[in-house]
Predict the 3D structure of the following.
Amino acid sequence: FFFSRDLQMLRRQLLVLCLLASAQAFYLPGVAPRAFKDGEAVNIKVQTLVSTETPLQFDYYQLPFCAPKKVQDLPENLGEALVGEKAHTSAFQATTKKNEYCKTLCRKSYTPQQMEEFQDFAILDYRVNMRLDNLPIAEMHLFAYDDKPKDTIEIYNLGYPLGRKIEEPGAKTDQYVLNNHLRFQILYHPVDSEDGGADTDGNYIVGFRVYPYSIKHTYRGKWNTTGGAYARLSTCRQPPNGKFTQHDPLIIDAQDGQEVVWTYDIEWVRSNVKWASRWDVYLQMNEIQDDKVHWFSIINSLVIVVFLTGIVGIIMTRILRKEIQRYNEVAMSDEERQEFNRELREETGWKLVYGDVFRPPPHAALLSVYAGTGMQLLIMSILTLSFGAFGFLSPSNRGALLSSILFFFVLMGVPAGYTAARFCKLVKEPNHFKTTLLTATVFPGVCFAMFFLLNMVVWARQSSTAVPFGTLVVLMLLWFGVSLPLIFFGAYLGFKRDVIEVPCITNPIPRQIPPQAWYLHLGCTTLVGGLLPFGVVFVEMLFILSSIWQHRFYYMFGFLFMVFLILVVTVAEITLVLCYLHLCAEDYRWWWRSFFSAGFTAVYMFTYAVYHFFARVHPAASVDLASVCVYFGYMFIICYAIFVMTGYIGFVSCFIFVKKIYGSIKVD
């Protein structure tokens, strides 16, 4: 049983990964700690406006907020540019360890159109994102399980809501208030010897919280334009307490426009949290609330793997080995020989198609192309998840995950070209240059075309998700300047190797395939082939979709790596079972069947993404065309990559399986 050693090794690897996941990935920050001295100015940066109800995000200054005299755009990496996470300087001013209250940011008069724009963003539950010392701003809430109401933990909600809906008795239409006052709470930890800092009189920023308020500010007499940051407002008291007097919320008037006074507070609070642990509060929700669900997903996936492993074991030990022994048996008794001849006459199994099982399928060159791309995506996924599991893709290093995916995909052009070339020679495709060129262009070309169309859609909506032209040029340079030459180099190495040897010679005339049972038709086998692998990943897929479209941090790469390995094993085993059933029915067309059966996992994932989209649409939000295009466009790219990768896993597993079993029998 030639899979036993591999399965034992896989079980050991899963055990090690379970230990790693239980310990959680350690934190390797992307930046060095910075200590702020007392009285030193700190810069609060503004970013984007995002919503869980729509994938469209907008730049902070696309709404008429208060702005400094000169807005500076902060540098960004490739990953940040692709997701539209742009950061700018702001008019908020803060000084280390200096509490300040009722600071006036600005007073602005807005037109009805501008107030209507604020209201539209409030209806869609848009939240404003900021950051300080690379920490994202967040609202903090207390969370407790129903069975343990006293055991509360702090959980985060990134950003703060631009506005909210209020219930006014007798109101004919929905009314929304604008959060025009922000109380920033900055947590700091003094530098001490335990932190290893050289500067002993500084402070590390370890938390950045916000408490939004809606206040209809009033002031006496005319507005004092020379009052600076502390204008005389009758709705809140001056330092040191900064308490509010009784006030009304600022209801958005989208018909007549209105005047808005923007204010904020700065509170510094000493914390016992060390700098190395300052991200724990953002990741704590995943580690505590979702931990049980992750382990349930792992156990569920392992049950499926054990079930499939048992089926494969039965096939390999009780059926294949027995039949191979009968074929290779030289010395038989008369009684055994009679029984053998009787079974041989009645036999309609996989051994009868030995002369056609390695016959090249239709469009064999395209299959070679996707085999090369699948190898490229598989290695890219393994490397990315490995780096994430060991903590290198820290959330403090923004855009690191997407940058790593692009980096590894581009560099894996050599194994992609090599794999495509090896299968191209096997199926006797004469045009080697065409196959290599298609390997370098088909998958990236489809993804880039979809990405470009989506970029045009969001650009028309003036969303910050639109990628600048310079970033598109960088992507083209990575594609044609790095990936394409590496694929051609890998193909050169592959074509220099000898053709893969197969144990059977293909007959010149194809064997007629008998009528197949209904459950062996392509539609049924693809449905079954993708169902069990999807059952392995659908729980983890919920967290990934929430991370992408609901703006949560995803850092459970240890769990994800385990689920990924289980997915690979599940796809390989279910494809082997289906392949054996087809061969027993004298159907030797396993090449494309194995690819589609395994790749159909991505179709289930896309279907689940459709359900996820419509199940979480806000009742008051209209589903506009741009949001639908962005969501389903990006999900198509993701699922297309999964389709190619899982299809390759199923195809290469069946190829090894078929090569092994037909190489173990004697054919006259």
Remarks:
- The CA atoms of residues 413 and 487 lie 4 Å apart.
- Confidence is low (pLDDT under 50) at residues 1-30.
